[in-house]
Design goal:
Low-confidence stretches: none
Shape: globular
Order of helices and strands: HHHHHH
Helix content: over 70%
Oligomer: single chain
Mean pLDDT: 94
Radius of gyration: 11 Å
Number of strands: 0
Distance between the termini: 17 Å
Number of helices: 6
Largest sheet: none
Structural class: mainly alpha
Strand content: under 5%
């Protein structure tokens, strides 16, 4: 959930995330406990390395840990 919070901190990045995922603010809020919605934020980060690296730094984890968290949600 911290990854989604980081994504949404920047208005341009949040807009890009919503555009790419097809989510709107209401469906995002409703899906915060849904592994697919949580995974979409991790996929979003994994697909743009600069954001992945900045998010990892801000969340005090490694980029690899963020990618692994996505795999854990899929299991």
């Amino acid at each position: 959930m911290a990854a989604i919070g980081w994504v949404l901190q920047d208005e341009d990045r949040a807009e890009r995330y919503l555009d790419l995922t097809g989510l709107d603010p209401d469906s995002l809020r409703a899906g915060l406990s849904d592994p697919q919605v949580l995974g979409s934020a991790l996929d979003f980060l994994a697909n743009y390395e600069p954001d992945l690296i900045r998010a990892a730094e801000a969340l005090a984890v490694t980029p690899e840990e963020l990618v692994a968290a996505r795999k854990d949600l899929s299991a």
